[in-house]
Each structure stands twice: as structure tokens, then as C-alpha cells.
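Researcher: Here's a chain I'd like modeled. Treat it as a single chain, no partners, no ligands.
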Amino acid sequence: MPATIQLREIFDAIGDGIFVADANGRYLEVNPAGCAMFGYSRDAFLDLSIADVVDQSELPGLAERLAVNPVGTITRSEWLFRRHDGSTFLGELVGGRLADGHHQAVVRDISERRQQEQREALIKQEASHRTRNILALVQAVARQTAAASPETFLDRFEARIGALAASCDLLSDGHWDAIELAALVKAQLAPFLAPGPAAERLVADGPALWLEASAAQALGMALHELATNAAKYGALANDAGKVLVTWQVSDDATPRMLLEWSERGGPPVMPPSRTGFGTRMVARMIQSTFGAETTLDHAPAGLRWTMACPLAALGGADNAQRA
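Model: Modeled as a single isolated chain. C-alpha cells:
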């Protein structure tokens, strides 16, 4: 087979676009991949110049970019190209000028690669941000737990870190997008409920609502503190008590989530002589994260805690769409 035929077959078979243009930038040759890349037939392409296939934003510096290529050297650059249908793509161009002044280039569409790089950079940035937030939260919990109850620090600290880990596990399962409120409630109460019939001691009821990472972590810690208190003094301290966690969305012009934790069937409730760290932490964390209004009622029949916050404070995009 003649060498020229072999070269032509290779030219036609290569998956990247190959282009040859004269000294003025008018195309002299293009392979099938190049035609497909831009959406032109070969005949149509040979009526075009480089200026016809780059985006308008590239035109001011086009002549200068072409002129700086010394004869015989290969350069690599990125261009924003425009297809026949008007759509654009980012292309990596490898080429240079031949001895006769013609331009020869290989072009590869790198739009997907660049988008992937941007996604990976965003993920790394978000992971770093979340890690800093979690470490700050762990540090605050450790400091406050040690100050409030140094004699039981290890047990209380491990329990609170376990609660934070439970929220993080749910977020990880959902690719750190958002988690459903019902799943968060069940995950935080699970360590306090024995398998089987005892699990019926939790009622979690409300519309499907989603929480983003910071909101899930904060509310998860609050639920853990409430459950810890219920296991020591409230509805989960005996075999007959029940915890009801219910929520709803108001139909106000600015929708709000109304959540209530109530206990039934536990020992008679006695108001505490002082406000413990857990109670203070719940109030501060919920207020700072959600801008919420909270109430705490030590009614003899069972503790009742409520929070009301803007629906937007949960952060889940689905919540805004539903509202």
C-alpha cells in the first residue's frame, strides 16, 4: 500500500480533530473527527478560516496568538471554540507553523475534563470546609463537656461524638448532599432504644424534610442531648415511656418548620435545680444554626421541647421547592 494512502487512512481514523490552515488561517484540510467536532461537512469547513470557528471572545488576540508561533515549534494552548450550531466548547490545541508558513494543529475537546477538574476542586474545598466545621464542633463539645462534668468527661464526650458520627454517617450515605429529617431522628434515638418492641417507643412523624450538613449536625446533637436526658430522667428511663417527635411546615408567606419533642409515660418530671450543659448547648446550637425560637417545658406528665425556624434554615433545596 503506498505510503500516502496509509497516511490518509491514519489521518481519517484519528479521533482528535486535525486541521491544516494557510498562513492567513484559512483551512486547507480537516479530518472526519474535526468535521464532527464542529458540525461541518468537509467541503463547508474548507470555506472557513480559524476566525470562523473560535468564539467571539477569542478574536481580539487571534492574530497575535497565531503570529507568535515560530516556524518548526509545537505549542499547546486552550481556545474557546464555536460549533456550527452556535454552541461552544473548550478545546486544547497542539500545533505550530510549518516551514511553508501553514498552520497545523490537533484539537481535543476538553470541556468534560475541565468540568470534572472543577467538580473535584469544589469537592476538595467543600470537604476541607466541612472538616474544619466538624473539628470546631468537636473542640467545643470537648471543652464544654470537660467544664460541665469533669468526673464523667470520657463517657459523656464519647456519647456526644457518637451522636455527631451518626449524623455524619447519614450525610456520607447521601454523598453529603442532604438527609431526611425522619432518618436523622431515628438514627439519633436508635442507641437509646432496644431492638424489637422497644423501638415502638419512638414516634417520628411529619412531612418529608431535608437538612444539609451543618443543619443535620446541629439538630442531631440537640436530639442526642434530649434523648440522653430522657434515658436518665424521662420517658426512656422506664419500660413504658414513649418519645414523640413531630414536625410540620406552616403555610405562612415565609414557611417555617415547627418541631416538637414530647415525652409520655415516664417518671414524673421534676424541674432541674440548674440548667445543665446539655440544655445550654441545645439552645445555643439551635439558635445559632437555625435562628430558631425554642421552648422547654418540664411539665409533670413529660418534658416538652419545641423549636420554630424558617424552612430555609434547613438548607435542603427540596424544602424550598416544596414550599
